[in-house]
Write the structure tokens for this entry.
Amino acid sequence: MERRRELRVRVLKAARILLNGHFSAISCTVRNISEGGACLSVASTIGIPERFDLMFEADKTMRSCRMVWHGEQRLGVQFARAA
């Protein structure tokens, strides 16, 4: 059953999960994305906190994220709304 509010677009974009004040990073691949969130593919979800920043490699843009679900190698995130 689909629970997303917005339609996601399939993509294969390189990104980094930024941790510890952006001093540590975990490489990931964005598998699909919408205005409100994304699905990320990682080597392992172990150690990834509930909240983190995501930086897209291509243009170095960043989005603040909250993890809403995870499996062994994939996680779904919700993007923080701009104030």
Summary: The first strand starts at residue 9 and ends at 19. The chain has a mean pLDDT of 92. The domain at 9-79 is CATH 2.40.10.220 (Thrombin, subunit H).
